[in-house]
Amino acid sequence: MRQIFRLLGWMGVIFALQSSWAQLRSEASHLPSPDSGQVRVPFVADELIVGLEPDTPALPLLAIEMVGGAVEYNPVINAYRVRLSPRILMQDAAEFLRALPGVRYVEPNYRVSAFATPNDPHFIQQYALTRIQAHLAWELWQSNRTVYIAIIDSGIDYNHPDLTNKIRRHANGAIYGYDAFNLIGWSQDFMDYAGHGTHCAGIAAAEINNGIGVSGVAAWNPALGNTANSVQMMPVKVLDEEASGTVFTIANGISWAANNGAHILSMSLGTLEMSSAIADAVSYAWSRGCVLVAAAGNFASNAPTYPASDSLCIAVAATDANDQLASWSQYGSWVDIAAPGVDILSTMIGGSYYTMSGSSMACPMVAGAAALLWSYNPSLTNQQVREALETYTDPYTPYNGRTIGTGKGRLNVYRALQSVGAAASPRLNALSLNPTTVVGGSISTGTVTISAPAPASGFVVNLSSSNTVVATVPSSVTIPAGSVSANFAVATSSVSSTASVKITASAGGVAHQATLTVSPATADASLSSLTIQPNTVSGGATATGTVRLSAPAPDGGAVVQLRSSSTRASVPSSVTVPAGATSASFTITTRRARSIATVWITATYNGTSRSAQLTVQY
Fold this sequence. Notes:
Layout: H1 2-28, E1 43-52, H2 61-67, E2 68-74, E3 79-84, H3 90-98, E4 103-110, H4 127-131, H5 134-140, E5 147-153, E6 178-179, H6 196-205, E7 231-237, H7 247-259, E8 264-267, H8 276-287, E9 291-295, E10 313-319, E11 337-340, E12 344-348, E13 352-356, H9 359-376, H10 382-391, E14 393-394, E15 410-411, H11 413-420, E16 428-434, E17 437-439, E18 443-450, E19 459-465, E20 471-472, E21 476-479, E22 485-492, E23 499-507, E24 510-519, E25 527-533, E26 536-538, E27 542-549, E28 558-564, E29 569-570, E30 574-577, E31 583-590, E32 597-605, E33 608-617
Parallel strand pairs: 5-7, 5-8, 6-7, 8-9, 9-10, 10-11, 17-24, 26-33
Antiparallel strand pairs: 1-3, 1-4, 2-3, 12-13, 14-15, 16-18, 18-22, 19-21, 19-23, 20-22, 23-24, 25-27, 27-31, 28-30, 28-32, 29-31, 32-33
Helix pairs in contact: 5-11, 6-9, 7-8, 9-11, 10-11
């Protein structure tokens, strides 16, 4: 009888609260996730722990369903782990649950672990990393692709033990960088002789947990193995040994970085004079999908500096260890974010370490945070990365009434990382063949597609053929980091009768099949070959394709259908071999991109297809 009355009591309170809870849900449906900036201890963003009094047997399912659902129960402590429905505010759900009879406590599901404290001996002197909660972000972060930061500055000491493993390199080990001064007679030299670029590079991405020196912002997780390759830096040398450059060297450096795969441009430099050249370069880089971060300047005024004040750049002011705007930092409504920039310890040329102050130090801190976010969730656009950094900040203290943009704050990389969420784990989505019918001896192009961008190590798909005498495929194909598809060639042999072959692609327990029909060659004129010259071009250049027939084309000519496996290279829909001729040529146009692409060009005539490969560089 006591249990019946208890149950009736629960139900009465629940029904009394239903209308108000419905109103809470209605009001919360358009609100963002809870403001974790009010909680200094990390917690699971969409979960609550609900503890009951010892004599309370259970939490009514109706109450749980009104806020989400119970995913776990611990009978020893009589507590539930409740996962909230999307868009439900934690504070509203907690207030509702606390009002129920028998509920002893409601609290966030705090994360409990050893703090991500790297073994870099100078980490304890780097107050800024704790201030922006990088150590909490590291526990949450994992790499889903490699992100490249262009340090547009005076070069980088690429031999520095805290930086050498974080430098992007070519396959032969050569530095992947740019020297604006080699165009005026200097030899190409990415080494930093001023020290400024090296100091900024260490702030953004000095190697973490390598037992030496300092820690950069991007990126590490104590539960993962070697993460040095997850964020790499490119030295873009636009300042000389006195840390001085020109508008044109800077514009050249920005343009080069945008054309050569840089995701984030860190620019601890600027001028009080507006430059159309720099503005155009900034606009170009943004259109290529880059995030541009620039130091606001150290003139203690609200005068705009360039490129920082360009609307496409994130303008960064400097704060001190107490989150107060530095007395010498630029300020004003055009400044987008603040970050620690006073007494920042970082790498210095010659393998040493040095403390420096300036918005130059604050800028790479934001750039490193951007890299951490983007490597975690590659599906973000440059605008989304920027919005996350500028929105999920902490308060700062103005200096003598000097403020930055309205609603702007000091960088908190942990909050920003939480806001973007992790990228979904990719799954094999589809397998397709083009064409699905070929004459024996021809090539069909297979394409595998996954549900989300491939992680930094790529996504391996296993391949097989049901009849390797007729059609063969490679044992596997790897979808590159950040991509969602990859092509492979299905090679066929001559056959005396039509044969059907099943091609299978599998990964992670998921398999997809496609059928290829292989036909015998006909006695009439058939397509004998397709060649491409040159077979390697730079993006934007052209190549020439040539089709050849096994016999002269008939009256009216032979119309050969053409197609390309990638938008990186375009071909006309067809080319006609004139009557009596055995060959014809066509033009292949290409476009620039951030990566090298392998494109298959396929020609088809009378059921016969021939393919040739074209490599399109940056």
